[in-house]
Structure formats: structure tokens, C-alpha cells
């Protein structure tokens, strides 16, 4: 009887494993082409034109054998294959070239400005160009290459695309607008993108796609009615439509190629090494050609890759379903077990407490999403070369290994040791002395007054106080050098923060006379909690003040000492506020600390895996300190 | 804990009163006492040097600072404050709004979960409470960069939410602890009586628990607001737009941004940025100190 679920499970697993059609993937590489700037596929799908960054345009047949290549004076910015076999090539050398089927030059038109984008309908009846710093689309005649007209847009143009039949034109401007025009150039819809537009495409039925720098492809039509947006993993580099508008091809900067359907549902995704630099479908939408930044062309059989992706998705869904069934079975077994033991009452309790869980839900959602998840993510990614949205590769302990060889970290560790030693002295001694002084005041009102006076420095925001101290160290107008001059030590005057030998000590000296408010209050409260009888009886026995402090106060403040030492250690290891504001780690590496290096690794060098490894290391040190502390407390109890 | 220290102080005072009656003022002004007072005054003045320097310099022009460093500002340049205010008011408004928003969230979340952990029993209570306790052991340095990536992926960076949510998520842990220990001190009979009279749970919470917990909520609000107002690294990392930036970061960039070369104006800006803290401390210093010592002794 127990067997039935297992048979069922095996059955669905088998069903899911039926292999999809073999993947028809092909690729070739163009020597020295560099960035693939543009791709064009002929109407019958038999030839592919490729524009390269090396100022050449190449023509291949559908199997990837070269037919001919032509050279332009500068980077090829656009290629277009017309149905009569003509190849149009636009270039940054300000020319538009046309070649016939065999590579003979038909014409060469000088446009006076660099051509930034080229688009043509299959029959060549509509050929439009975007030239450098131009606010008009330029329309060109197919037979002579002469300019026959222009379509004013009104702001600086960036990209243009034309549908296969020439029915629709879509143009993108550098101020983040996309304009959908009909073939006569009258504006149908103006679309506002939320970031720089990287690529545009338009299908035969007037659906336009806009790829942006905010990792999105936005879709809209002439009424502005279809307004869906597709997320990609990185900045979109190119978009293309199949002629029926049912397939959208997208490439992004981290080498992902995607195929979506006309409603934005993802059908397929693949990743190559390098950057994806161009996508184009053949007319039937059966083959997708894509280019990279290092001269490679990939050819995907759309039908089979989509089938494969779909069957993989189906397999995944079935595995999930299987796991779900398994989970349900296990839960049922567990419930059965509980029922046998008569322990089901716990569920009644849980159900009774449902409003309690509801009340705790917001708190715990925040705790899990915004506290636990980042902590675990940091631990996990410290073993990775972490590129959010891009490639994240496992590197083992390489980040940690790099850390112990990083001169800034080594220097930072040395500085940290100095900061910890001085920091402990600064945190404990001045606060303790002040607390004793206040405690020994007879007048309670004066005690309260001084306590308040010391806390008054809290009213300055921490950053402002640091900036004031930075000013105090100024070599010319700083208070410190002026005081030195006043008392006749002018020769000691110094650019305290600018000298690598003094910068760290100048930072340590910030906050003089170092009376921490928390520390003061903790000690003061500790002193107040010492039973008065103890001190009175010591006095009767003839103990002097020093003796009372040494033999009664200090031992009874043990807990406070331990607490403040731990707090100071943890605080100093993590703190880099002050150093970042006052010196930024400089001059040279003289004031670096590991936490600052972590911040810089993440923000300046975008090296998030390495930053996580630094964070994890500091966490481990802090954890060790905490554990040792807890052990100590236990032994004392 | 604070109440304990108070009673300790109280128990000392009768002895002192006795002494006062015996020796009068002379006993108060004995030589050692005067020494202590002088020492403490010196320390206070040293502590306040940067603040005094700030106030004096904020009224000077560059020429006055360079030419007559030790002189008092004459004439006092009050329009330094005007110039400083026009450049940093935006940052201040942002900071105050974020601080109030985050603190309000913290109060709401902490009071609910503190009450539940203090007064309710339900399956999994210990486990959930341990989960919160464990989170207090995680230092910010571990979560700083991954949190940034998370908020960025959620599209929250460069919006007010990145400050408010981060403040609420982090602050509620400590807040729950404070509220839990405070609310377990409220006698349960109060709630029972109200429930017998037919009050719903929500009514009990808002009409009995919250009013009785106002002191701890005030403490929490002030601590959280001051914390958010002073925060520097997180906004620096997550906010790019100048119009959304907070005052802590604003103070470090406004001179470049507005092309201010007058040191007096810079010092005026620092002084202006202290006004919200002065206001909140003049109303709630007691609560802040209470929270600080309580937090210290609970840990």
C-alpha cells in the first residue's frame, strides 16, 4: 500500500526526463572583428551580414562560411541586407556604402556626419539613418544613396529601427524618449523610458521594444496601450523582433541572450562568456543570430532552443511537484505518527494562536528579509566572485587568501591593533576617573549638573564633530597649531593629518579628553549601585579614599569593565566612520583599517565578494570575542 | 535597572542631608570638594572646546579667522547662518522625516512584538525569541555590503525607504527587547480585568498596554531617531540623489556642492545641524540616558 506514491513519483520523473529535440547551436568567430556592432539577416535567411568594430563588414551564408568582406574608413555602425541582395554599410567615416551580391560597390554616399545608426526595410523602400549630433532622421534613396528627405524629431537621436515591411519606424533619443512613427514619418506615440535607451526594435504590427540601461525591455504600441516591461540581468545591448512580432530577441552586457514572446513571457535564456552585442532573427523567426564583443557569432535554432527550454521548465515543474508530493506524504506520515502518540493538540494550539503569529509577522518578515538574508548572503558570497546581476563564480577561499596578501589589509591590521589598545585606554580610564569625581561630589545637585554637562556634547551630530576636529588639525587655521604657537611651541606646528607619521595618532586624539557618555553613565550607575554600608563600614575601619576605590569600587565594577571592554572592542573593529571622514585612509595607507578597505572594495572597485570576505573575517573575530566573553561570565557565575 | 540606581541614590541622600545640617555650606566647600569641582570644570571645558570653537568661528569671516584667530568675531557675521541654512535645509528636512518615519515603525513593531513575547504563550515562542536574540550578535560590518546589494536588487536604493526600512528592521530588535522587559513588569491582572469586562485584545493593547508603556516608547523613539539622524555610512552608500540625501552626508559635501569657501558658513551649518538634537535632548535627555544605561545593562 505504501508503494503507490513511489510508483507515481517514478512515473512523473520518467515523463519529465523525455529528452527534447537536440540543440542546434552553431557558432563561428571573426578574427580581429572586435565588437560586433550590427547584424542583418537577408529575407530568405540564407545570408547574414555582420558589422565589426574593426571597420569591416562581413557577409556569411547561413552556415557561417564567408562570402565576402568589405572595408570602411572607420567603425562600421550599421549593416542592412535588402531583399534584392544589396548590402548597405554605414560607418563612422561619414559614409553610407552599398554593395551588390558579389561585393561590387554600387554607390558610396558622403553624409558629412558620422552615421550612428542605420535601418532599412527588407525591400529597401525605406532607409533611415541617424547621424551624429542630429535631431532629424535622414531618409536615403535606395538607388543612389542621396538624401531624399528628413523627419524632424526635435531632440538628439541615438538609435533607429524599421520594421521589415517599412511600415513602422522607431527612433530613440538621448533624452530617454522613444518615438514610434509610421512610414510617412508622422508620430504615432512618444514613449518615455526610465533610463538611457540602448536599443530599439519594431515589429510588422507596430509593437515597439526599447532596451534600456536599467536592465529592462519596455514594450509599447502605437496607442501606447501595450505597456509591459521585461527584466533582464544586465544592461540591454540589443533587441530584435521576428517579423510576426511573436518573438523578441534580447542581448545584455553580461552575455545573456533571451527570447521572449510578444507578451513578454520568457521562452529561453542562454549565457556565453563575454558581452552580448547584437541579436537578429531571420524573417521567419526560426533562427536567432547573436554577436559578442570579441567577434563571435552564435546561431540558435529558435524552435529547438525554445522547446528545450520549455521541456527543461516542464522537468523543473515536475521535480517541484514531486518534491511537493513527497513533502505532503512526509507530513501526513508525521501527522499519523503524532496521532498515534496523541500529540495533535499542538496544532490546535497553533491555530488558536493565529492572531499572535499575525501580529509577529511584520517583525519577523523584516528580520528574515532584511537581517538574516543579508547576513547569510554575506557568508555565502565571501566564497564567490560576486557580481550582482552578472556572473557570480565560486572561487573557494581565494578571497580570504587575497586578504592576507593585501598590503592595505596588513597595514590596516597593524593600525587596528594600535586603535584597539588606545581605544580601550580611552574608553575606560577617563570615564572612570570622571565618574569617581562626580560620585565623590557631596552635592547631589552638582552631581546632576555635571552629569548633564558631560552629556551636552551629544547635541552635535557625530559627523559635524568629526568635521570640526578635522578643522582643528588644519595646518594654518587649526586651533591646535595656533595653541602651540601661543605657548611658544610654534616649531611643533604641523600638518597633523597630512603627515603619514602623525595621521593615525591625530585620529586617535580626536575626542580629547575622551570622556565617553555611555562609559561615564555606566560607571556612574555602577558606583551608585554599590551598597553604601560597605563604604561606610570601610571608613569606620579607617580606610582612606584610595583604599576604598581600589578594594571596593574597582572589584565591584568588574561587570561594567567587562561590558565596556567588549563593547569597545566590537565597536572599534567595525568603525570606520571617523577615518573615512577625516582622512579617507590616507595619506598613503597610513590610516587604513580593514573595515575601510571593505567599504572601498565594495564601492570603489565593485569587488563585492572580496568585501564580503573582509566582513566575514571581522564577524568571526567579533564572534570569537563574544564567545570568550560569555565563557568568562559563565566561569564567574 | 535605572529605577534601581535611583533608589540607590535616594538611599544615600539622607546621610548627606544629615551632614548638611551638621556642617552647613562649609562642609560642601571643603578643599577636596573644591578640587573636584575645579577638575570637573576643566574636563567639561575641554570636552566643549570643539563646540565653543564652532560657535565662535561660525560668526567669523575667512579674513577674521586668518587675521585675528583668537579674537571674538567683530562684527559678528550673522548672515553666515542664512547662507548655511539655505544650503543644508533640504538635508535636514530629509533627515528629520527619515528619523521620524523609522522611529514610528520601530515603536509600532516593537510594542506589538514586545507585548506578545512578554504576555502571551504560544507554540514556538522560545524559538522565535532566540532568533531575535541571535540577530543581536550579528555585527553591522557583516551585513553592510550584502544589505546594500539586497536593497539595490529590490530597487529600494536611492529612495527614502532604504533608510526607513533599514532603520526599522535594525531598531526593532533592540526595541522588542526593551518593550518585552518593560511590559512583563505590567501586572497581568489589569488585562484580565479588562477582558472580563469584554474588551477585545486590540482594545486592551491600545488602551492599556500602550498608555502604560509610554515611557519606554519615548525612550525607544528618541534613541532610534537620534541614531538615524546621526547615521552616515548607510545613506552615503545607498542614496545618490542630492535631494534625498541626509544631513550627515550633506555636511561633508555641501561646501563642494554649493561652492562655499567660507569657513564661517561651514561652522554655521554644523551648528544648525545640531538644532534637532538640541530640541530632542532638551525634551528627552532623561529617556535617552535611561535607554542607554538600560541597553548597556541588559546586554
UniProtKB/TrEMBL annotation, chain B:
CDD domains: TM_PBP2
Cellular location(s): Cell membrane
Chief location category: membrane
UniProt membrane topology term: Multi-pass membrane protein
Keywords on record: Cell membrane, Membrane, Transmembrane, Transmembrane helix, Transport
PROSITE patterns: ABC_TM1 (PS50928)
InterPro entries: MetI-like, MetI-like_sf
TM segment ranges: 34-56, 96-118, 127-149, 161-183, 204-226, 267-289
Annotated signal sequence range: none
Residue stretches making up the ABC transmembrane type-1 domain: 92-285
The family this protein is said to belong to: Belongs to the binding-protein-dependent transport system permease family.
Protein name (Swiss-Prot/TrEMBL): ABC transporter permease
Amino acid at each position: 500500500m505504501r508503494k503507490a506514491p513511489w510508483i507515481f513519483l517514478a512515473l512523473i520523473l520518467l515523463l519529465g526526463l523525455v529528452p527534447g529535440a537536440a540543440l542546434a547551436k552553431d557558432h563561428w568567430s571573426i578574427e580581429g572583428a572586435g565588437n560586433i556592432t550590427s547584424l542583418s539577416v537577408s529575407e530568405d535567411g540564407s545570408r547574414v551580414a555582420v558589422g565589426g568594430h574593426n571597420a569591416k563588414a562581413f557577409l556569411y551564408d547561413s552556415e557561417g562560411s564567408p562570402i565576402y568582406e568589405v572595408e570602411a574608413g572607420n567603425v562600421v555602425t550599421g549593416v542592412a541586407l535588402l531583399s534584392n541582395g544589396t548590402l548597405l554599410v554605414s560607418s563612422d567615416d561619414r559614409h553610407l556604402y552599398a554593395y551588390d551580391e558579389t561585393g561590387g560597390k554600387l554607390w558610396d554616399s558622403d553624409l558629412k556626419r558620422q552615421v550612428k545608426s542605420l535601418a532599412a526595410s527588407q525591400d529597401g523602400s525605406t532607409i533611415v539613418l541617424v547621424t551624429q549630433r542630429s535631431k532629424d532622421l535622414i531618409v536615403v534613396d535606395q538607388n543612389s544613396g542621396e538624401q531624399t528627405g528628413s523627419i524632424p524629431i526635435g531632440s538628439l537621436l541615438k538609435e533607429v529601427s524599421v520594421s521589415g515591411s517599412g511600415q513602422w519606424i522607431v527612433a530613440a533619443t538621448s533624452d530617454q524618449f522613444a518615438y514610434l512613427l509610421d512610414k510617412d514619418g508622422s508620430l504615432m506615440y512618444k514613449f518615455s523610458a526610465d533610463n538611457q535607451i540602448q536599443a530599439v526594435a519594431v515589429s510588422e504590427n507596430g509593437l515597439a521594444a526599447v532596451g534600456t540601461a536599467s536592465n529592462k525591455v519596455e514594450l509599447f504600441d502605437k496607442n501606447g496601450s501595450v505597456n509591459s516591461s521585461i527584466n533582464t540581468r544586465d544592461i540591454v545591448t540589443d533587441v530584435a523582433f521576428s517579423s510576426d512580432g511573436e518573438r523578441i530577441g534580447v542581448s545584455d552586457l553580461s552575455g545573456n541572450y533571451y527570447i521572449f514572446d510578444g507578451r513578454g513571457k520568457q521562452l529561453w535564456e542562454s549565457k556565453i562568456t563575454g558581452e552580448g552585442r547584437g541579436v537578429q532573427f531571420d524573417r521567419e523567426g526560426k533562427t536567432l543570430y547573436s554577436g559578442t564583443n570579441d567577434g563571435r557569432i552564435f546561431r540558435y535554432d529558435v524552435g529547438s532552443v525554445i522547446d528545450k527550454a520549455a521541456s527543461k521548465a516542464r522537468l523543473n515543474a515536475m521535480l517541484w511537484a514531486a518534491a511537493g508530493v513527497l513533502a505532503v506524504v512526509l507530513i501526513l506520515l508525521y501527522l499519523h505518527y503524532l496521532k498515534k502518540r496523541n500529540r495533535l493538540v499542538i496544532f490546535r494550539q497553533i491555530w488558536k494562536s493565529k492572531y499572535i503569529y499575525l501580529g509577529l509577522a511584520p517583525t519577523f518578515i523584516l528580520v528574515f528579509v532584511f537581517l538574516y538574508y543579508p547576513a547569510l548572503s554575506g557568508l555565502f558570497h565571501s566564497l564567490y566572485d560576486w557580481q550582482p546581476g552578472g556572473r557570480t563564480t565560486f572561487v573557494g577561499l581565494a578571497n580570504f587568501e587575497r586578504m592576507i596578501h593585501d598590503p592595505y589589509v596588513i597595514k590596516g591590521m597593524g593600525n587596528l591593533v594600535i586603535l584597539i589598545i588606545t581605544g580601550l585606554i580611552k574608553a575606560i580610564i577617563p570615564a572612570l576617573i570622571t565618574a569617581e569625581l562626580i560620585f565623590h561630589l557631596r552635592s547631589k545637585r552638582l552631581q546632576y549638573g555635571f552629569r548633564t554637562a558631560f552629556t551636552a556634547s551629544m547635541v552635535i551630530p557625530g559627523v559635524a564633530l568629526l568635521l570640526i576636529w578635522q578643522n582643528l588639525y588644519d595646518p594654518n587655521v587649526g586651533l591646535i597649531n595656533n595653541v602651540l604657537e601661543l605657548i611658544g611651541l610654534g616649531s611643533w606646528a604641523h600638518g597633523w593629518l597630512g603627515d603619514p607619521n602623525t595621521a593615525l595618532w591625530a585620529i586617535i586624539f580626536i575626542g580629547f579628553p575622551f570622556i565617553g557618555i555611555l562609559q561615564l553613565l555606566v560607571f556612574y550607575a555602577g558606583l551608585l549601585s554599590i551598597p553604601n554600608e560597605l563604604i561606610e563600614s570601610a571608613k569606620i575601619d579607617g580606610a582612606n579614599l584610595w583604599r576604598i576605590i581600589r578594594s571596593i569600587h574597582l572589584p565591584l565594577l568588574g561587570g561594567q569593565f567587562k561590558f565596556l571592554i567588549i563593547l569597545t572592542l566590537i565597536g572599534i573593529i567595525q568603525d570606520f566612520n571617523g577615518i573615512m571622514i577625516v582622512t579617507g585612509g590616507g595619506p598613503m595607507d597610513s590610516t587604513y583599517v580593514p573595515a575601510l578597505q571593505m567599504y572601498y572594495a565594495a564601492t570603489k572597485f565593485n569587488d563585492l565578494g572580496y568585501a564580503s570576505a573582509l566582513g566575514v573575517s571581522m564577524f568571526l573575530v567579533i564572534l570569537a570575542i563574544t564567545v570568550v566573553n560569555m565563557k568568562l561570565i559563565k566561569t564567574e557565575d | 535597572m535605572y529605577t534601581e540606581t535611583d533608589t540607590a541614590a535616594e538611599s544615600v541622600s539622607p546621610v548627606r542631608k544629615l551632614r548638611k545640617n551638621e556642617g552647613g555650606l562649609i562642609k560642601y566647600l571643603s578643599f577636596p570638594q573644591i578640587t573636584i569641582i575645579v577638575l570637573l570644570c576643566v574636563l567639561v571645558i575641554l570636552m566643549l572646546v570643539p563646540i565653543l570653537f564652532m560657535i565662535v568661528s561660525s560668526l567669523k569671516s575667512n579674513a577674521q579667522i586668518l587675521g585675528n584667530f583668537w579674537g571674538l568675531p567683530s562684527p559678528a557675521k550673522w548672515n553666515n547662518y542664512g547662507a548655511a541654512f539655505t544650503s543644508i535645509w533640504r538635508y535636514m528636512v530629509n533627515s528629520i522625516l527619515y528619523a521620524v518615519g523609522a522611529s514610528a515603525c520601530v515603536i509600532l513593531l516593537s510594542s506589538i512584538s514586545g507585548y506578545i513575547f512578554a504576555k502571551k504563550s504560544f507554540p514556538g515562542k522560545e524559538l522565535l525569541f532566540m532568533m531575535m536574540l541571535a540577530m543581536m550578535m550579528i555585527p553591522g560590518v557583516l551585513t553592510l555590503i550584502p544589505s546594500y546589494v539586497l536593497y539595490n536588487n529590490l530597487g529600494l536604493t536611492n529612495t527614502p525607504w532604504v533608510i526607513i526600512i533599514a532603520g526599522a528592521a535594525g531598531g526593532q530588535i533592540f526595541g522588542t527587547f526593551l518593550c518585552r522587559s518593560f511590559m512583563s513588569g505590567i501586572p497581568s491582572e489589569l488585562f484580565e480585568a479588562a477582558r472580563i469586562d469584554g474588551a477585545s485584545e486590540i482594545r486592551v493593547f491600545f488602551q492599556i498596554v500602550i498608555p502604560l508603556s509610554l515611557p519606554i516608547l519615548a525612550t525607544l523613539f528618541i534613541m532610534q531617531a537620534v541614531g538615524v539622524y546621526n547615521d552616515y555610512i548607510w545613506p552615503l552608500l545607498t542614496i545618490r540623489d542630492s535631494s534625498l540625501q541626509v544631513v550627515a552626508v550633506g555636511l561633508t559635501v555641501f561646501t563642494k556642492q554649493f561652492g562655499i569657501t567660507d569657513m564661517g558658513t561651514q561652522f554655521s551649518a554644523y551648528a544648525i545641524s545640531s538644532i534637532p538634537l538640541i530640541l530632542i535632548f532638551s525634551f528627552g535627555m532623561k529617556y535617552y540616558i535611561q535607554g542607554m544605561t538600560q541597553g548597556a545593562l541588559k546586554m
